[in-house]
Structure formats: structure tokens, C-alpha cells
Specification:
Helices cover 78% and strands 5% of the residues. It is mainly alpha-helical. α1 runs antiparallel to α3 and α2 runs antiparallel to α3. It starts with a helix and ends with a strand. It folds into two domains: 68 residues, no CATH class; 145 residues, Helix Hairpins (Orthogonal Bundle). The protein binds zinc ion (ZN). The site of zinc ion has 9 residues, from loops.
């Protein structure tokens, strides 16, 4: 195939632009910010769920406290009732003794129940503290997500702009190159890791980086400038510069 030396150089330029665009595409996919953002999102979700769990736990313990308060109230009521009977002059002496014992027992029971009540209150405090700290962490991660999202969007927009500029520079080359040459380049590019055209530099193909043997170098030197030369090793279009 034939192509003017100018077209061959344009093809190299196109190749450079396309490689640059591939690098940008790779950068877009592997932005370190994306990993940071994913981590912040995971942490946000974890702390949000833990805050909900702590709040549910707090409500459960509050129910437990209500029941415990009721238990204490019932005992207090019984003590009052017994006390009334004790204070009454109608109560028989035998009954008085029973009542005195019962009040003593009830007072012990009341103390026990109050003890339980206190423990429950301490557990509520712990649950409240937990909820607060998970909510604080959740909110901090939410702010981090907003910050990272803005940074990510900016990075994507900046890289996108650069890519667009390069893409625009490719247009005139794509329009001017011989379609047959372009097709050959694209075909080689697809099967050669995105590189279809390479420079012949100091006796080396900069596509596969292999040294070209002297016989081949001599042969290439004799090939007319508008003849397309291919690398013997990688079959890429070899542009003499
Ligand atoms: Zn090569």
C-alpha cells in the first residue's frame, strides 16, 4: 500500500492522539477519588445502619423501663395499702405482725426493683451515647461524600475537556487520510493493543520495541518514501521519521 510521507506522519500523530485518549479513558475509570468515594459511601451506610439499630435498642430499653417503673409502682401501692392497715386501729394484733413482715418484704423488693430500674437507665444512656456517636460519624461521612463527589465531578469534567480537545484535533486527520490506509491502521490497532502505527527509531520499532535486523533495515532504506512499510515482528505500520 502507498501513502505520502505526510500522510504517514499524520497517521503517527493520530496514533499519539488516540493513545492519549485511551490513557484519559483509563484515568477516568481508575480515579483514586472513586475508591475514596466508595469507601466513604460504605462507611456512611454502616454508621447510618448502626445509628438506626442503636435507636431501636434505645426504644426497646425505654419500654423495659416503663415495665420496671410499673413494677415499682405496684410495690409502692401495696406498701401504702399495708401501711394504711398498720395505721388503722381496727387491725387485729395477729394481723399486724403479718403486715409488718409483708411491708419489710415489700420494701426489700422495692429496693431490688429500683436497682433494676437504675441499671436500665444506665443502659438507655449507653444506647443514647451510641446513637449520637453513630449519627455524628454518619453525618461526617455524608459531608465527605459531598466533598468527594464535587471533586470527582470536577476531575471528570477536566479530563473530559482535555479528551474533547484531542478528539477535535483528530477530526481533520481522520477526514484527510486515505480511507484504505485508515482501515489498515484500525485493523492492526485492534489486534495489537491499540497501537497500529509505530515509529522507526534508531533501527528499532517503537511499537514492539524490537531491534530490526540489518538486512531488513537495508531493505527498508531502499523502499520508496510513499510505500507503506510494516514491522516484520509486530506487523504494525512502520513510519520512517
Ligand atoms: Zn514492531
Amino acid at each position: 500500500m502507498q501513502a505520502t510521507p505526510e500522510d504517514q506522519l499524520d497517521l503517527l500523530q493520530l496514533q499519539d492522539f488516540e493513545l492519549e485518549m485511551s490513557r484519559i479513558d483509563y484515568q477516568l475509570k481508575t480515579l483514586p477519588l472513586l475508591a475514596d468515594l466508595a469507601r466513604a459511601e460504605r462507611n456512611f451506610e454502616d454508621n447510618r445502619d448502626l445509628a438506626i439499630a442503636a435507636s431501636t435498642q434505645k426504644s426497646d430499653i425505654e419500654e423495659e423501663l416503663k415495665r420496671s417503673e410499673l413494677d415499682v409502682e405496684q410495690v409502692v401501692e401495696r406498701i401504702k395499702r399495708d401501711q394504711k392497715l398498720l395505721d388503722s386501729s381496727d387491725t387485729a394484733p395477729k394481723e399486724l405482725e403479718i403486715l409488718i413482715n409483708e411491708v419489710a418484704n415489700l420494701n426489700r423488693r422495692k429496693e431490688e426493683l429500683e436497682e433494676i430500674e437504675l441499671e436500665i437507665m444506665v443502659r438507655i444512656d449507653t444506647a443514647v451515647e451510641n446513637q449520637k456517636s453513630f449519627e455524628k460519624a454518619r453525618d461526617e461521612f455524608a459531608s465527605e461524600i459531598s466533598k468527594l463527589t464535587a471533586e470527582r465531578d470536577l476531575a471528570i469534567a477536566t479530563l473530559g475537556e482535555t479528551r474533547k480537545t484531542i478528539e477535535e484535533k483528530c477530526q481533520p486527520i481522520l477526514a484527510s487520510l486515505d480511507p484504505e490506509l485508515l482501515n489498515l491502521y484500525k485493523k492492526i490497532k485492534e489486534s495489537n493493543g491499540g497501537v497500529g502505527a509505530a515509529r522507526l527509531l534508531n533501527g528499532k520499532c517503537d511499537g514492539c520495541h524490537l531491534q530490526i535486523n540489518t538486512v531488513e533495515i537495508t531493505r527498508i532504506a531502499e523502499v520508496a518514501a510513499n510505500e507503506i512499510v510494516r514491522c516484520e515482528e509486530c506487523r504494525r505500520i512502520l513510519v520512517r521519521i
